[in-house]
Amino acid sequence: MNTKIKKSITYMSVIIVVLFAIVLLLYLILKPTPSYSLRWVREYHVGVDSPNSDLRPEVLLTHGNNEAYAVGVNKNGYVVFKDPMRAFEQFQKDYEIEIKEIMQEYYLRKFSFRTCRSYMAYGWQMPYTNESTNHHDVTLFIDIFMHSFSRRYHYLY
């Protein structure tokens, strides 16, 4: 091959790799982050707020009496976590068994902020096995968790 052609192929390869690196770096810097525009504005009252809803945040509130699961009500009347990211981290520890069982049953990717919507759908479909594990709590948690963020963010993943 001609040396001129070899040089141009080499330059083009370097340019493509550099462009790819720039795009990857920009994505990592500018990737979407949760928007807390739907923060809680008042306390949640058991039985008063969302009485016709299937949401039972008191189930999570009693799980280890952990303050990470503290809930409030946002400006739209939805039950939300007061500190959603802290609740998410605590949830991963407390419900590790249920998350693992859902992942194995439905061949899901590792539980994360980006994959939690799949766990929300499949957690409700898990068969009831025993009283020590409750997969429906996974769905309950993610439902409340997703209400803690702006709707715009829900459709990014």
Q: What layout of secondary structure does this protein have?
A:
Elements: H1 3-30, E1 40-43, H2 57-61, E2 71-74, E3 79-81, H3 84-94, H4 96-106, H5 116-123, H6 136-147, H7 151-154
Annotation, overall tally of beta strands: 3
User: Helix content range of the residues, please?
Assistant: 40-55%
Strand residue percentage = 5-15%
Spell the H/E element sequence.
Answer: HEHEEHHHHH
Structural class: mainly alpha
pLDDT averaged residue by residue = 77
Number of domains: 2
Shape: elongated
Termini Cα gap: 47 Å
Main β sheet profile: 3 strands, antiparallel
Which regions are unreliable across 5 or more consecutive residues at pLDDT < 50? Answer: 153-157
Secondary structure tally, helices? 7
User: What would you report as the Rg, rounded to the nearest angstrom?
Assistant: 22 Å
Strand order of the largest sheet: 1-2-3
Would you kindly provide a written description of the structure presented here, covering whatever features stand out?
- The protein is mainly alpha-helical.
- The chain folds into two domains: 1-31; 40-154, no CATH class.
- Helix content is 50%, strand content 7%.
- The chain has a three-stranded antiparallel sheet.
- α5 (116-123) packs across α6.
- It is elongated and about 80 Å long.
- The termini are far apart.
